[in-house]
Every structure is written in structure tokens, then in C-alpha cells.
């Protein structure tokens, strides 16, 4: 077995750079996730729309972004646009957009699934109270659906944090790339890999805990416990 | 779905990708065609013009290749770093702006105008020349075989038959071994450091990589050795977009000046002796 030398992690300079890049990872992921929620909502409502055109548009989006790997989408977006169309792209902006568009496809299915899981009787009840379709959606259906979205959305955010390591392929220096740069300098492979694994683990479990706490707060009944 | 709607769905999918990204992607380049106008005046070259205006040179590199380019803390260091800074000064750029990316992203990045030049120990090859241009060589390297210190069974290229050899994807080593050592099992990895790790953990029998990188690793780790005979003579060059022929000429002149003034020898001495 090889000798490990974890003292290299203890150096303040290394800690600072790792934490800095962890912060960037979190910022890019959350920005991407925010975009994904917006896109996901649009796509899910497009899919449930009565208009054929919207439905096909949403399906096309879904099939493309769920059907191709994130890595390919990143390359197409970041290198493809300037080469093919002469459109300049900024690395971190492209990264956030790619994360958002990719995750938006998945988020849309979470949102649609949650909304459609609400009993039809809820809509009927709302309508018979005199609410319009939109009002019933906003006041009765969506609040209930949001509770059901929490667990899968937490999942989606966590997997997005992990996927964000792919941004290293488009010149964005995030946690994974930073570790690789340090490994190339010091050859302390295992030490840095373990260090970033711990950091990813901590962040993702923190997100998981916040998700659970939110679920507990928003849940109304004690059923199925 | 009938045929027409199927087609339009596919079309929509593609156009949506383009529109969404174009809408939020960033600014349009205004002078993207400037380099191709064919005007012979030096100042017509888009990159030279940019250097004259901003006094900066944007350099693309994969900073995971000690001792040529690597990062210590926030700082880029290495032979390529020092040399390109000297060259940049001759070109009239006071500041060098490094853009770090993975090796396989360097040529697409150059084409996409993410930087002006590649300075990342890239071998000049005919295949690459079809896509980009190269400056004159600035350093001779060569492929060499690295094995574990206690391995006496591998003495040269012929001994690699049937053995597992780790190589970095997209590098010259892959091509060379595929042509000259057909019965070798290649294990292709993404990064230089992964190659060493493969050997370190006994997953492969040997590593084929550039001599300087192998030597540096051996010097730091001491668990490996580099075979004395190099497989090839290779030459490193700076990668430049084909449309910037004027800039290539200027880089070659700058390189010559750096060599003539003795700076080059100093940098070589600093990193390899």
C-alpha cells in the first residue's frame, strides 16, 4: 500500500482554493437549478397544454435534452456556437445555461408528475366552488403538488451538483478541475480525491437535510408516515 | 405522428437548442472575419490588432503537465509559461492571460476564438495541421516508455507486445503505438496524472508519454523509471488558427528573438537542469 500524505490538504493555500472552487460549484449549480425550475415549469405546462403546437414543442425539448448526454450538450453549446455561428460564449454562462437546460428536462417531468398526481376531485371541487381553472391550479393544485415535488427535486439538485464537475471540460475551474490541477502539481492523487469527495458529500447531504426539513414543514397530514 | 410532424419535431429540437443559447449566450463578435480579408498589412491580422490594442495575449493550455505547465496555488508555472511570456513580450503584449482547459478542448477552444494561441506542449503533427497551424518548434521532446522501478522485463518497444500500456487520449502516443506496436493493449485515459496512477496501481505494465513529463514524475516519486531510449523525436509547437498567418509569422520572429537574446537558454536551464 502507498503512503498517504494528508498534510498537503492542510496547507492553507490548498484549503482556500478547494473551498473557493467548491463555492463556485455551488453557485453554478444553484444558478443552473433556478433556470431548470423555470424551464421545467414551462415544459411541463407545455406538455399538459391543450394546444398541439405547445405539446410538440415541449416534447421536442424533452426528447433532445433528455436524449443527449450533458457532456455533448456542453461541447455543442460552448465550442459549437462560436465555430458554427460565430457567436461568442462565456464559459461560466454557457455552463449554467447547459446545466439549466439539461436539468430542466428532468425537472419538467417531476413537476408534471406531481401535478397530475393530485386527485381529479380537487380540480372538480375547486371549479364547483366557482374558481376558474387557473385559480384552482394556483390555489389548490399547485400548493399540494409542490409538497410532492420536494423529494425528487432535492434528488435533481444533488445530481446536478455532481454533474457540474463536467464544466471542467469547458474551461470552468470548479471543484473537480481544481483538484486535478493540484494533483498534477503535487502527484498526491488519493489525498485530493478524498478531500473533494468529502466536500461533495458534505454539500449534498446538507441539501438532502434541507430538503427533508422542508418536506416536514410543508406536509399537512400525518398519513403514510 | 405522421411523417411531417416527426420531421418538424426534430427540427424544433435543434433550433430550440440554438435559439435558447444564442439568446442568452453572450455578445456577438464584431470583427470575427477580420483575419480572413487577405489584406497583407500586418495590422490587418485580427490577433495582432487585438494585441496592439489590449496589450494582452490569451493563451490556452492544459495546466496538468509538469514541468511544462502546471498550477501551484493560483499561479501558472513551468517551461511553457516562462517561454510564452517572453514571446508575448516580443509581440508587444505586456500581459499574458492564461485559459486553463482540458487537453482535448484546446483545438476546439482555439477555433472558437476562446484564446489566441495554444501553448501546452502540443506536438506538431500532420493530422493537427489539417485543422490548425503551428509555429516553428520551440522544444524537442520525444516519446518514452516508463515502467515500475523493479520491472526488468520491459526494455524497449518490442517488449510491449501483449502488455497493457497507458496513454493519454488525443496525444501522439496513441497514434504511435497503434502504428508501431499493434499487439499492445492500450489503456486510454483523460489526463497525464491518470496515466501515472494506472501504472502506480499496477493496472498497466507501462506508460508511454513525453520524456520531460516522465522524467519529472520519476524525480518526484521515485517509484518508476524511464527507459533510456526514446521512441521518437517529436517537436512541440504553438497552435494558431489558420486564418492568422500574419500572427504565426510574428510569433516565429518573436521566438527567434527570444532564442537569440539568450533568454531561451536561461528558461531551458531553469526547468530542465
UniProtKB/TrEMBL annotation, chain B:
<dbReference type="Pfam" id="PF00497">
    <property type="entry name" value="SBP_bac_3"/>
</dbReference>
<dbReference type="InterPro" id="IPR001320">
    <property type="entry name" value="Iontro_rcpt_C"/>
</dbReference>
<dbReference type="GO" id="GO:0015276">
    <property type="term" value="F:ligand-gated monoatomic ion channel activity"/>
</dbReference>
<dbReference type="InterPro" id="IPR001638">
    <property type="entry name" value="Solute-binding_3/MltF_N"/>
</dbReference>
<feature type="signal peptide">
    <location>
        <begin position="1"/>
        <end position="22"/>
    </location>
</feature>
<feature type="domain" description="Solute-binding protein family 3/N-terminal">
    <location>
        <begin position="56"/>
        <end position="273"/>
    </location>
</feature>
<keyword id="KW-0732">Signal</keyword>
<comment type="similarity">
    <text>Belongs to the bacterial solute-binding protein 3 family.</text>
</comment>
<protein>
    <submittedName>
        <fullName>ABC transporter permease</fullName>
    </submittedName>
</protein>
<dbReference type="GO" id="GO:0030313">
    <property type="term" value="C:cell envelope"/>
</dbReference>
<dbReference type="GO" id="GO:0016020">
    <property type="term" value="C:membrane"/>
</dbReference>
<dbReference type="InterPro" id="IPR018313">
    <property type="entry name" value="SBP_3_CS"/>
</dbReference>
<feature type="domain" description="Ionotropic glutamate receptor C-terminal">
    <location>
        <begin position="56"/>
        <end position="273"/>
    </location>
</feature>
Amino acid at each position: 500500500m502507498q503512503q498517504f500524505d494528508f498534510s498537503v490538504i492542510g496547507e492553507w493555500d490548498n484549503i482556500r482554493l478547494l473551498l473557493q472552487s467548491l463555492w463556485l460549484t455551488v453557485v453554478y449549480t444553484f444558478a443552473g437549478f433556478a433556470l431548470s425550475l423555470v424551464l421545467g415549469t414551462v415544459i411541463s405546462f407545455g406538455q399538459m397544454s391543450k394546444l398541439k403546437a405547445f405539446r410538440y414543442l415541449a416534447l421536442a425539448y424533452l426528447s433532445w435534452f433528455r436524449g443527449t448526454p450533458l457532456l455533448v450538450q456542453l461541447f455543442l453549446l460552448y465550442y459549437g456556437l462560436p465555430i458554427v455561428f460565430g457567436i461568442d460564449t462565456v464559459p461560466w454562462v454557457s455552463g449554467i445555461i447547459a446545466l439549466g437546460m439539461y436539468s430542466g428536462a428532468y425537472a419538467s417531468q417531476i413537476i408534471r408528475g406531481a401535478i397530475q398526481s393530485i386527485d381529479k376531485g380537487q380540480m372538480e371541487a375547486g371549479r364547483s366552488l366557482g374558481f376558474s381553472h387557473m385559480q384552482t391550479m394556483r390555489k389548490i393544485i399547485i400548493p399540494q403538488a409542490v409538497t410532492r415535488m420536494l423529494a425528487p427535486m432535492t434528488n435533481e439538485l444533488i445530481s446536478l451538483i455532481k454533474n457540474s464537475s463536467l464544466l471542467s471540460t469547458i474551461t470552468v475551474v470548479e471543484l473537480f478541475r481544481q483538484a486535478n490541477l493540484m494533483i498534477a502539481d503535487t502527484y498526491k492523487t488519493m489525498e485530493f480525491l478524498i478531500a473533494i469527495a468529502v466536500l461533495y458529500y458534505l454539500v449534498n447531504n446538507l441539501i438532502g437535510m434541507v430538503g427533508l426539513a422542508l418536506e416536514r414543514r410543508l406536509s399537512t397530514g400525518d398519513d403514510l408516515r | 405522428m405522421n411523417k411531417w410532424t416527426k420531421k418538424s419535431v426534430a427540427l424544433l429540437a435543434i433550433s430550440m437548442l440554438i435559439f435558447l443559447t444564442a439568446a442568452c449566450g453572450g455578445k456577438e463578435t464584431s470583427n470575427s472575419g477580420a483575419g480572413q480579408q487577405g489584406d497583407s498589412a500586418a495590422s490587418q491580422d485580427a490577433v495582432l490588432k487585438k494585441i496592439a490594442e489590449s496589450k494582452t495575449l490569451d493563451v490556452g493550455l492544459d495546466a496538468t503537465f509538469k514541468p511544462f505547465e502546471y498550477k501551484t496555488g493560483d499561479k501558472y508555472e513551468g517551461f511553457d509559461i516562462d517561454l510564452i511570456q517572453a514571446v508575448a513580450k516580443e509581440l508587444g503584449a505586456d500581459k499574458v492571460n492564461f485559459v486553463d482547459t482540458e487537453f482535448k478542448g484546446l483545438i476546439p477552444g482555439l477555433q472558437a476564438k476562446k484564446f489566441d494561441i495554444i501553448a501546452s506542449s502540443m506536438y506538431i503533427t500532420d493530422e493537427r495541421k489539417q485543422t490548425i497551424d503551428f509555429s516553428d518548434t520551440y522544444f524537442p521532446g520525444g516519446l518514452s516508455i516508463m515502467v515500475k522501478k523493479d520491472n526488468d522485463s520491459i526494455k524497449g518497444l518490442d517488449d510491449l507486445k501483449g502488455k497493457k500500456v497507458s496513454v493519454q487520449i488525443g496525444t501522439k502516443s496513441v497514434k504511435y503505438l497503434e502504428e508501431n506496436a499493434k499487439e499492445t493493449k492500450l489503456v486510454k485515459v483523460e489526463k497525464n496524472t491518470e496515466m501515472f496512477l494506472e501504472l502506480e496501481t499496477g493496472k498497466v505494465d507501462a506508460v508511454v508519454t513525453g520524456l520531460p513529463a516522465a522524467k519529472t514524475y520519476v524525480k518526484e516519486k521515485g517509484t518508476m523509471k524511464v527507459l533510456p531510449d526514446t521512441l521518437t523525436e517529436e517537436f512541440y509547437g504553438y497552435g494558431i488558427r489558420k486564418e492568422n498567418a500574419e500572427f504565426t509569422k510574428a510569433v516565429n520572429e518573436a521566438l527567434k528573438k527570444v532564442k537569440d537574446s539568450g533568454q531561451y537558454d536561461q528558461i531551458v536551464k531553469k526547468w530542465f537542469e
